[in-house]
Write a structure and sequence with these properties.
The complex is a heterotrimer. By secondary structure, chain A is mainly α. Chain A is built from ten helices and no strands. Chain A has a single domain, classed as Orthogonal Bundle (MetI-like fold). In chain A, 76% of the residues lie in helices and 0% in strands. In chain A, α3 (67-101) runs antiparallel to α8 (178-213). In chain B, the strands form two sheets. In chain B, strands 1-2 form a two-stranded antiparallel ribbon. In chain B, strands 3-4 form a two-stranded antiparallel ribbon. In chain B, α5 packs across α8 (194-232) and α9 runs antiparallel to α10. Chain C has nine helices and ten strands. In chain C, β1 and β2 (60-72) form a beta hairpin. The two termini of chain C are 13 Å apart. The model of chain C is unreliable at 1-31 and 301-305 (pLDDT under 50). Classes of the chains: A mainly alpha, B mainly alpha, C alpha/beta.
Chain lengths: 270, 291, 311
């Protein structure tokens, strides 16, 4: 005999497209449009030199005209940033796993992590080119990887320590082996945090790869293009490349955000 | 006491371990590095030029910075430049924190402001500063009122502020929105308006979110300062020193590492100083839930 | 049905056992027989003898449990009740081998608590449901089975069976965050039953639920115990809950944590713990027993149930 208990409510799942309020989508677009409009008016109205700041319309013209070059640049920088992000993410996760297992390693890593979290990527770029050669992209990839490894390390370490007491004790009552505990509880608990770290690091990867291009390395990439456009005084074109880098950074951010939301879809709110 | 001593010793051991790995690789690694395919290096070149010995790096600090007579040691030069950059970063941090807090207040007060501004705040960090810095200098050069002229320093401080405002705005917003609904409704039943609620409830509740954000902002301000210094070429800062010493790395590879250590030191000092502030605000970090 | 109350501090009973108890139970098998067969006495589910648990923290010492002796027979339902700090949850955790006593012994089905845990002789339900949020409801119920190497088909069959038992047949594919608190607790109980344990340990599992859901869950639990014949050690704050569910109610008091008394809940009106229905909640015998437990909790000796005419 079964007892069916009806009329109990279930809670709705998290983020759904139709739940987004119209205002939340329109407001930022309105702000952006107002900003661009004001910028255009200021440049036209006050007759500002493109040397100081070009008009959005001029930038748009260059964007459209040079779009294949801009996309090429985005591909090069984006590829370096992506490989760097994957490498850095892997190193960050492995390091965090080691640190969560052995407190000794965690304490030994503290100064290294602290130093890497404050080092300006700019400062590392020249020495990395000497170490890895200036004819290839490796130096840029390493720069991006270093930049990404720290947020991923810190967030993953936090996630590995978030196992709740009730889950830990439940596993104890099941006499679960350490491997079973890691597979059934620790890893799934930590996974959303790994992707939070990746999201935080995503635009950082793009910026780092781009900045590294300023210090040498092979031709190709948005950084190189910005410098050469600026050097030939074609400021609207330089800004067009800057726009490309913003779009690239945004793309990285949005993708990692979606991945993070997917992995955290059933997690309790933190 | 014993525990913190142990932590410090382990930290030092960690640094020594990294140095040991560096030099071991240098001793046994291939001169040309480990190649994949024709030209792609996946492990660095172990030559003296590419990877100086760790003790050479330390040693170089105590030798004269340049070949000129009466030149200070590299360490002294780095320290002076570090102090200069630190002072600019501090100004940038202060501006960034002020702007960030204002934005956080605005966004917490008006939902529309949050919807409209927050995405742009997040997007602002995707702009490559190294491209923007020269523009900031150009814009600043147009500004002249009274006896105030725009110096390069101000451009650098502004870039530092640009990087610093983001964690404060985001962390501050999260903190101001953090009080539990029951607390907010309690204030409502006392007939307390938005401003008083802010002072008595939201600001204290935001402290646990603001403190890490302030620390992060300090580190970001330093990074921003260094990047801007490189881009603008500001004399006297550690950023320019990085580029200068790197240029002479062909003959003097260990020298290039000195300003890197300096930049790291500046960042750590900045973050540490804000960390000390954390201690002063300790009571506000307690939460209601019992353990 | 008699209203006379011959025995000072127990609920009225019809003399089916060995006479009035005057102190904590000692030795095995002093609980009432709950099954029809009265063959050789089965091994006690839980035997706690002279257990102390002292928590030492820097300079303070907290005596959570002091000289606690109690037993739970096979198939018996025993509640632990008392104010905060009386050590009831501590005692449950000691039985579950989540903690070790400072002195004294505990045996579960004749084994040490460690061995009983290794042999998976009990199922446990905590105050928080503790469901793994990334697994579906069915997958959560299957968790202990999966950990102990049960095959997929068998697991699925068992989880469907258990979902039916707790009335959540349609929710197997849902995730915990889509369920209300009461439903989550039911899943937790289903999970505790997954390996058909002979002993259930429950730490205030209905604590976070509203009264209406609580009573419903209590009825469910009675039915489940009847169908599985498991022994239960149940920690609660609620006197009516303890009396409704149990064969015996162990009353504890704090500072130091110790057993004050053990009240029998049974008799003609109430029946065994397997026979409790909603009607029992209105029975006079029920109120007498609740009053008796309450008196012990308040430390005042019972002189007879008040508000009821005695002849």
């Amino acid at each position: 005999m079964t007892a069916v208990i009806t009329a109990e409510t279930t809670r709705r799942p998290r983020l759904r497209v139709k739940d987004l309020r119209l205002g939340a989508v329109l407001a930022p677009l309105a702000v952006g449009a107002a900003f661009l409009g004001g910028w255009q008016l200021a440049v036209d109205g006050l007759g500002i030199d493109p040397y100081i700041v070009p008009a959005p319309s001029a930038i748009w013209d260059q964007l459209v005209a040079g779009r294949s070059n801009i996309i090429d640049g985005m591909v090069v920088t984006g590829r370096n940033a992506l490989i760097g992000m994957l490498l850095g993410g892997l190193v960050g996760v492995l390091g965090a796993v080691l640190s969560s297992v052995a407190r000794v390693i965690d304490q030994m890593a503290v100064p290294l992590v602290a130093a890497l979290s404050v080092v300006p990527i700019v400062a590392l770029a020249p020495v990395l080119y000497t170490m890895f050669g200036a004819a290839v992209d490796t130096g840029r990839i390493v720069v991006a990887a270093v930049a990404v490894s720290i947020p991923v390390y810190l967030n993953t370490l936090r996630g590995l320590r978030q196992v709740s007491t009730v889950h830990r004790e439940l596993m104890a009552t099941y006499a679960a082996t350490p491997t079973q505990v890691i597979r059934t509880v620790t890893l799934p608990t930590a996974t959303p945090y790994v992707f939070t770290g990746l999201r935080i690091a995503s635009s950082l990867a793009v910026i780092s790869a781009l900045i590294a291009e300023y210090f040498g390395g092979p031709v190709g990439g948005l950084g190189k293009a910005i410098t050469s456009a600026a050097a030939s005084s074609n400021y609207p074109l330089a800004w067009a490349y800057v726009t490309g880098s913003i779009v690239l950074g945004l793309a990285f951010y949005v993708v990692t955000l979606l991945v993070e939301l997917w992995f955290a879809r059933h997690a309790p709110p933190t | 006491m014993r525990r913190s001593l142990r932590a410090v010793l382990l930290g030092v051991l960690g640094v020594l371990l990294v140095a040991a790995v560096w030099d071991l690789y240098k001793a046994f690694g291939p001169e040309q590095g480990v190649l994949v395919g024709e030209r792609v290096l996946i492990l660095p070149r172990a030559s003296d030029l590419a990877m100086p010995h760790t003790w050479e790096m330390v040693q170089r600090l105590f030798e004269p910075a340049t070949g000129l007579r009466g030149a200070p040691t590299a360490l002294e030069a780095v320290l002076e430049a570090s102090g200069f950059t630190l002072s600019i970063a501090a100004k940038g941090w202060a501006i960034g924190v002020a702007v960030g807090l204002l934005l956080a207040l605005l966004m917490s007060r008006f939902k529309l402001a949050e919807s409209g501004l927050l995405p742009w705040v997040v997007l602002s960090q995707t702009v490559p500063l190294i491209a923007i810095a020269p523009l900031v200098r150009r814009w600043g050069a147009q500004i002249e009122f009274g006896s105030f002229t725009w110096e390069n320093e101000h451009s650098v401080a502004l870039i530092a502020a640009y990087l610093a405002f983001f964690p404060v705005a985001v962390g501050g917003l999260r903190g101001l929105k953090s009080p539990a609904r029951t607390h907010v409704e309690l204030m409502h039943t006392y007939g307390v308006g938005w401003w008083r609620t802010l002072i008595t409830l939201r600001l204290p509740a935001s402290v646990p979110f603001l403190l890490p954000a302030l620390r992060l902002a300090a580190a970001s301000a330093v990074i921003g300062s260094v990047v801007a210094e490189v881009s603008i070429g500001l004399r006297g800062g550690i950023g320019r020193m990085v580029v200068e010493y790197a240029q002479s790395a062909g003959g003097d590879p260990a020298k290039a590492w000195a300003p890197i250590f300096g930049a790291v030191a500046v960042g750590l000092v900045a973050a540490g100083a804000v960390g000390l502030l954390t201690l002063a605000l300790r009571p506000f970090r307690l939460t209601e839930t019992s353990r | 049905m008699t209203l006379t109350d011959p025995v000072p501090h127990n609920g009225p009973d019809n003399g089916s056992d060995t006479g009035p108890d005057t102190g904590p139970d000692t030795g095995p098998n002093t609980g009432p027989n709950t099954g029809p067969n009265t063959g050789p006495p089965a091994v006690a589910a839980i035997e706690v003898v002279g257990v102390d648990r002292v928590f030492r923290r820097r300079r303070d010492e907290v005596v959570a449990l002091s000289d606690v002796t109690v037993s739970v027979a096979a198939g018996e339902f025993v509640s632990l009740i008392g104010p905060s700090g009386c050590g009831k949850s501590t005692l449950l955790r000691l039985v579950a081998d989540l903690d070790t006593p400072t002195s004294g012994t505990i045996s579960v089905f004749g084994k040490t608590t460690r061995q009983a845990r290794r042999d998976q002789d009990y199922g446990i339900a905590f105050q928080q449901a503790g469901l793994l949020p990334w697994r579906t409801v069915a997958s959560n119920i299957e968790l202990p089975l999966k950990l102990h190497g049960v095959g997929a088909a068998e697991r699925r069959a068992r989880s469907s069976e258990l979902l039916e038992l707790v009335g959540l047949q349609d929710f197997g594919r849902h995730h915990p965050d889509q369920l209300s608190g009461g439903m989550q607790q039911r899943v937790a109980i289903a999970r505790a039953l997954a390996e058909s344990p002979r002993l259930l340990l429950m730490d205030e599992p209905f604590g976070a639920l509203d009264e209406i859901t609580r009573e419903r869950m209590q009825n469910e639990l009675v039915r489940i115990c009847r169908e599985t014949s498991a022994a239960v050690l149940f920690v609660t704050h609620s006197i009516p809950e303890a009396v409704f569910l149990s064969d015996r109610v162990v009353v504890m008091s704090p500072r130091p944590g110790r057993i004050v008394d053990i009240v029998k809940a049974g008799g003609a009106e109430m029946g065994t713990s397997h026979e409790r229905t909603d009607e029992v909640r209105d029975a006079a015998g029920f109120f007498h027993t609740v009053a008796a437990v309450r008196e012990h909790l308040h430390g005042v000796p019972v002189n007879g149930a008040r508000g009821v005419e005695s002849r």
